[in-house]
Write a sequence for this structure.
């Protein structure tokens, strides 16, 4: 069973497991918010250059699909920004948060509910990931940068120094509710991507 | 001799669990990447303790607990999970797990469930 794996593979496997742990920690507050038990799926983690991100996200959701997008920045060692994209068509969980069918809620209430979901998921993911990598991250408040916008039009108004993208895909399968689908993207400038690799190396070194 | 079977799809998670096992010379540790392999290894090695992950592709931890208990009602199965939902813990215990620990697991937790030397 043992296979020779490159350092890059080992880092990616470590990152995937740490993300898995981080999402697990988000499940409890999310299940309370969404009033249902969440069946956790294994999140998939892909690294890619920033230039490929728009096409990858569009392919993931479908080019014509409408999405919500929440942006948050984090710093200082693990530095970058996170973008949480939720499928606007699969928003059964949103109705639960709102306590009424989505179409009956004011847009302001819908925006607030999306921000709350984004805040919990992003905070838990980045916060726990930072803790596991032995650093402390500070967050900016979440900002809703797209509301029910076609995915092809939210093609990432990114800062120039964000060179590396980590795409984390997760399915929020909430029992008693229609599923929600979303993905979380972490965008890192080159120094932070290097810091992340070094932190993963330190983490792996402790396991051997 | 105490035989331990670690089941997790993530190589890193298996390493993390291995690194938290107490340093005992009499531990024999086997690893499986998923449910099917775990069942085969269980039948072959009859481990004293199975440590399994809950969130795995294909057969998840809940299903695997049920299959191991069906195979051997006295199977000593504990779950490692990052899932903090109380309902997950309840379902694991109802399926037959002896204990549920949160990831990353601590050595003290494993000492509670490992057979004594």
């Amino acid at each position: 069973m043992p296979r020779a794996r490159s350092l890059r593979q080992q880092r990616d496997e470590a990152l995937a497991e740490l993300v898995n742990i981080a999402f697990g920690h988000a499940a409890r507050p999310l299940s309370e918010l969404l009033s249902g038990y969440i069946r956790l799926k294994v999140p998939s983690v892909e690294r890619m250059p920033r230039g490929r991100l728009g096409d990858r996200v569009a392919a993931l959701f479908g080019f014509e699909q409408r999405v919500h997008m929440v942006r948050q920045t984090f710093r200082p060692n693990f530095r970058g920004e996170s973008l949480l994209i939720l499928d606007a068509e699969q928003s059964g969980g949103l109705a639960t948060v709102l306590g009424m069918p989505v179409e009956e809620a004011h847009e302001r209430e819908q925006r607030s509910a999306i921000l709350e979901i984004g805040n919990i998921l992003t905070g838990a993911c980045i916060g726990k990931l930072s803790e596991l990598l032995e650093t402390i991250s500070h967050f900016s408040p979440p900002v809703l940068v797209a509301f029910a916008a076609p995915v092809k039009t939210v093609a990432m108004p990114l800062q120039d120094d964000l060179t590396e993208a980590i795409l984390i895909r997760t399915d929020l399968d909430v029992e008693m509710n229609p599923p929600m689908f979303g993905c979380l993207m972490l965008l890192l400038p080159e120094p932070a991507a290097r810091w992340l690799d070094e932190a993963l190396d330190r983490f792996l070194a402790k396991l051997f | 001799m105490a035989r331990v079977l670690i089941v997790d799809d993530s190589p890193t998670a298996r390493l993390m669990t291995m690194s938290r096992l107490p340093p005992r010379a009499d531990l024999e540790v086997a690893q499986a990447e998923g449910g099917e392999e775990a069942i085969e290894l269980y039948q072959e090695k009859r481990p004293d303790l199975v440590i399994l992950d809950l969130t795995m592709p294909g057969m998840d931890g809940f299903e695997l607990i049920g299959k191991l208990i069906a195979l051997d009602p006295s199977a000593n199965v504990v779950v490692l999970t990052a899932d903090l939902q109380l309902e997950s813990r309840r379902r694991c215990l109802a399926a037959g797990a002896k204990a549920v620990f949160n990831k990353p697991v601590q050595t003290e937790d494993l000492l509670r469930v490992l057979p004594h030397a």
Q: What stands out?
A: The mean pLDDT of chain B is 94. Residues 55 and 100 of chain B are 13 Å apart (CA to CA). The helical segments of chain B are 11-20, 35-45, 61-71, 86-95, 107-113. The radius of gyration of chain B is 13 Å.
